Structures are given as structure tokens and as C-alpha cells.
């Protein structure tokens, strides 16, 4: 005799409404925490962008004055925006090595070798980003850094002490920051591209081989069109990362020398936490959000049209 408990059902065979309601109760804490720690700060920033606010008890409504200051009076922010565009462009261009490496791994017939190569490029993910920045600061050190010592060893410069100062040079600081991360393999992007390539039916590549297509033709006409969804995703993430990024600037140069590496995110950080102008910092954050939204929409529209064609 079966003594297992049975679920009660209504006359039409459906589960009672309160069984579904219990599931919503289980996920309610997740929505509460998302609302508190994700949506509330964003809404608060939009609200306080219309105020002259010091973050505590001084709050005066100023309307659009903060936004007028951004677009009409803040020359430093204009220069920083140009630096931000350079970082965004670098983020997008540096997606190419990850795509090419994913294609190479995809064509490795030995799955064990592919697995170990994939592990080699993914293991650096466990290293904290701060450690990587400090390592690059050591590489760029003009006295004991590895880069100047390598240039001296190759005879390009007389000695490490006579070489470029890199992060302290107004002409080299920005290129030095953009060069960070060599050989520019993003482990997350690599895995996403590789997963997209592995979903391509082998019949497509086999048909291209039978038709006499070269490796380059297969890449351009078969493989890349089939992973455009993954490329679009990583381009969006690259845009968001480039606009928001100020951590490496804050740690490695502090925006210097002479504001040569200042970005809007760093100005927002300094305005909020050094000068206690939270209202103006909120306005900068809102403008950055609108820039990210606009670039993301353009990116999605472009790729949608490209795929449809």
C-alpha cells in the first residue's frame, strides 16, 4: 500500500494557488537584496543629481545646474572623456586576440591538448586584479622595472636609469596603461567564444573544406558569422568596462601626470569622496550611464542589422 504523501489538486487538476505563492516567497529575499544594493543606489543617484548635496545633511535643489556644469564648464571632464574613448577603443580592439586564440583552440583535434591550453589561459583568473596592477607598476618602474632592464639588455637604451619613465611621462602614461594586460587574452571572453565555436555544426566546416575554402575564408564566412552573438555580448561588456573603468588609473597613476590619464570615473570618485560634492558626482554618474546605454543600443542595432543581412 502506497503511503507516500500526495499533493492536493483542485477539481480541474491544477495545483492550488498557494503552492505557487510559496515559490515567490522563497525568491523574495533575492529581489529585496537586489533592490537595496543595486536599484536603490541607482535611483538615489538620479534623484540627487538635481541637488547640491554633500552626502549628509546639506541638500539644495539646483535643477539642471550640475548637468550644465558638466557640458559647459568642466574642461577637465571633457579631456577625461577623450581618455575614456581611448580606453573603450582599446577594449574593443583587444577582443581580437581572444577571438583568434579561441579559433585556434577550436581547431585542435586533440581534446586533451585543447583542455590543457584552455586551463593555462584560464588559471590567471584566480589572481586578484590588484596583484596584476602592482606587477605592471613594477614592470614600468624606471629604475628597477623589467621593461627598462630588458631594453637595456637589448642595447636599445644605455642603462635602465636612462630609459623612459613610462607612467611618469605625460606622453607615455596613457599608452602604458593601454598596453597593460599583454598578451591581451581575456579568459572569460576566450571561454565564451570557444563555447560559441563548439556549437557550430561540423558539417558547415566540412562543407567549406570540400568546397576548397581556405582557413581565412572559413574564419570570415563560417565561424565569425556563427559567433556574432558572443561577439556582440563581449563588445557590450567592453564598452561598459571602458566607460566605467578607473581602478587601474587610480592605483597606477592617480590620473597623472598632469591629468594625462584622468577618466570620468576617476573625476566622479574624487568629486564624491575627496571634495564631498555628491550631487555633482551623481550627475556625472548619470551621464556615464546614458553614454553606456547609448553605445549599447547602437551596438545591438548594428549587429542585429548585420545578422539579418
Shape: globular
Low-confidence stretches: 305-309
- The strand order across the widest sheet is 1-2
Strand content: under 5%
What does this structure look like?
There is one protein chain. This protein is mainly α. It has a domain at 68-131 and 165-308: Orthogonal Bundle (MetI-like fold). The protein is built from 15 helices and 2 strands. It has helices at 17-48, 65-73, 75-93, 96-106, 111-122, 129-140, 146-153, 173-179, 187-198, 202-210, 215-226, 228-244, 247-252, 264-273, 278-308; strands at 51-53, 59-61. The protein has a two-stranded antiparallel sheet. Helix 1 (17-48) packs across helix 15, helix 3 (75-93) packs antiparallel against helix 12 (228-244) and helix 9 runs antiparallel to helix 12 (228-244). The N and C termini lie far apart (64 Å).
Amino acid at each position: 500500500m502506497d503511503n507516500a504523501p500526495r499533493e492536493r489538486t483542485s477539481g480541474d487538476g491544477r495545483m492550488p494557488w498557494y503552492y505557487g505563492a510559496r515559490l515567490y516567497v522563497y525568491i523574495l529575499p533575492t529581489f529585496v537584496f537586489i533592490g537595496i544594493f543595486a536599484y536603490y543606489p541607482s535611483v538615489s543617484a538620479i534623484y540627487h543629481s538635481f541637488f547640491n548635496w554633500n552626502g549628509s545633511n546639506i541638500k539644495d535643489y539646483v535643477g539642471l545646474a550640475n548637468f550644465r556644469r558638466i557640458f559647459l564648464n568642466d574642461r577637465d571632464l571633457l579631456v577625461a572623456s577623450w581618455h575614456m574613448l581611448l580606453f573603450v577603443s582599446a577594449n574593443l580592439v583587444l577582443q581580437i586576440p581572444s577571438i583568434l586564440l579561441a579559433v585556434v583552440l577550436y581547431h585542435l583535434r586533440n581534446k586533451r591538448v585543447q583542455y590543457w591550453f584552455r586551463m593555462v589561459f584560464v588559471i590567471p583568473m584566480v589572481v586578484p586584479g590588484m596583484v596584476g596592477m602592482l606587477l605592471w607598476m613594477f614592470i614600468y618602474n624606471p629604475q628597477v622595472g623589467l621593461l627598462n632592464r630588458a631594453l637595456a639588455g637589448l642595447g636599445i637604451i644605455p642603462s635602465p636609469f636612462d630609459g623612459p619613465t613610462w607612467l611618469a611621462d605625460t606622453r607615455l602614461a596613457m599608452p602604458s596603461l593601454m598596453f597593460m594586460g599583454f598578451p591581451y587574452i581575456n579568459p572569460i571572453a576566450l571561454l565564451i567564444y570557444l563555447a560559441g565555436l563548439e556549437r557550430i555544426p561540423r558539417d558547415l566546416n566540412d562543407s567549406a573544406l570540400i568546397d576548397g575554402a581556405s582557413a581565412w575564408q572559413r574564419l570570415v564566412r563560417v565561424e565569425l558569422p556563427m559567433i556574432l552573438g558572443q561577439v556582440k555580448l563581449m563588445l557590450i561588456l567592453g564598452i561598459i568596462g571602458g566607460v566605467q573603468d578607473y581602478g587601474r588609473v587610480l592605483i597606477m597613476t592617480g590620473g597623472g601626470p598632469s591629468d594625462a590619464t584622468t577618466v570620468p570615473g576617476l573625476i566622479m570618485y574624487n568629486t564624491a569622496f575627496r571634495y564631498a560634492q555628491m550631487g555633482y558626482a551623481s550627475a556625472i554618474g548619470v551621464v556615464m550611464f546614458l553614454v553606456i546605454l547609448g553605445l549599447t543600443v547602437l551596438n545591438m542595432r548594428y549587429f542585429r542589422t548585420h545578422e539579418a543581412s
